[in-house]
Amino acid sequence: MPEGTYCNKKPINTPEEVNFLLSDSSGTKYYEEMKHLDVDSELLASTIEKTMKTRLKTWLEICAHCGMCADSCFLYQVNGKDPKQVPAYKIQSTLGEIVKRKGKVTNAFMRHAMEVAWAQCTCCNRCGMYCPHGIDTGIMFGYLRGLLYQQGFVPWELKIGAGMHRAYRAQMDVTDADFVETFEWMVEEYEDDYPGLTVPVDVADADIFYTVNAREVKHYPEDLAEAAVLFHAAGENWTIASKGWEQTSLAMFAGDWAACKMQVESVYGAMERLKPKRMVGTECGHAHRATVIEGPYWAGRPDGRPPVESIHYVEWLAEALETGKLKIDPDKRIQEPVTLQDSCNYIRNHGLKKATRTIMQHIVAPGYFIEMSPNKEHNYCCGGGGGFNGIGVFRKQRNRALLTKRDQILATGAKLVIAPCHNCWDAIRDLEEEYEIGIRWSFLKPLIIKMLIVPDHMKPVE
């Protein structure tokens, strides 16, 4: 069967197509049709010939099978050190075989490769740190995901997620009007406590253009108001955009590179229209990677940078605390054992470990901050990165992947975990639900607001 009704090679482009695939509860029909989906070997071979550049070819060829990457992989460790979970084996047995066979692979092989690509790797890129040849298996898995997506072998939820970006330029069915109205509504809810609180929309030449994760609009709207409170308290000249406000990219997890380009160009379009001094992205690791690190290349920007300086929320917050724009009441600092989750996407892949430690120095009383071991760029993935959190068919494997982070947290003795990243936050929430180790978890914004010295211009009039 070359194409199924639900499972096929066609991208989802419209709200109607999104809703049709959503109507297949849990992807039951989708996965059944996938068992009969034909592999277009000619397309697979020609795609590899056109897109596999020297770097990927070299990495496949020079792997020495030394096993140095094995212990670096938390999935290898939590799965009984199964040799088939060694990063080098996983990529050689999937992408390597597709290349060797020049695309002449079976449906069963592609379904197996799909499981390896999405349930045995989170693209955390930790293995690349320990490879003596600098081979980055995470990058290679990203390429493999693109090949699989093109052939229709992609998890149901991520096919929908990529379609959301094509249809809404957001990872959820949130329209531009929904975003602005929700932000304004939430700010109104907080206005009694913080007089003068507003959300500036489409202000040109602002110092800060703030971008968000659509999940905040859909499920955590209080995060929007908290961002407004802190920008207002800091006296920032900031704005949001009525179009191009969504920073995330489930298309990146899905391997839908065309949708990645569409999504990031939407954000860059807002930058070019409003001309802010810089963009500040919310507490989301993959959003930062998609927009700031990978995005310029998807958009074909020759300098490898977004149109304006673009930073993660932890960078802005560290700066605001260091410069005194935000002041913390020392008596309200955290005075219980607390630890910090380092997000792969902005710590390991963008070197922001100093910013997060600066924040900890300001908001945690001396003696209460306990580092995980290992930490910073050596930290392990939360267990839910790379789209792993949201894929129902691989939930059993995802729950096992949470064990490393569970044990890291337990070793600290901390009861509070700060997770300035949506995927990490979700994984740690699910970790507690699954294993009940008695912890709490939080983004930075609500913690800061509780200990903030409120400036006079924000105090209610008695």
From TrEMBL:
GO molecular function: 4 iron, 4 sulfur cluster binding; metal ion binding; oxidoreductase activity
Domain of life: Bacteria
Coiled coil spans: none
Keywords: 4Fe-4S, Electron transport, Iron, Iron-sulfur, Metal-binding, Transport
Keyword Oxidoreductase carried by entry: no
Chain ranges of the 4Fe-4S ferredoxin-type domain: 60-135
InterPro entries xrefs: 4Fe4S_Fe-S-bd, 4Fe4S_Fe_S_CS, Cys_rich_dom, Helical_ferredxn, HmcF
Residue ranges occupied by any Cysteine-rich domain in the UniProt entry: 338-424
NCBIfam families, per database record: sulf_resp_HmcF
Protein name as annotated: Fe-S oxidoreductase HmcF
Gene expressing this chain: hmcF
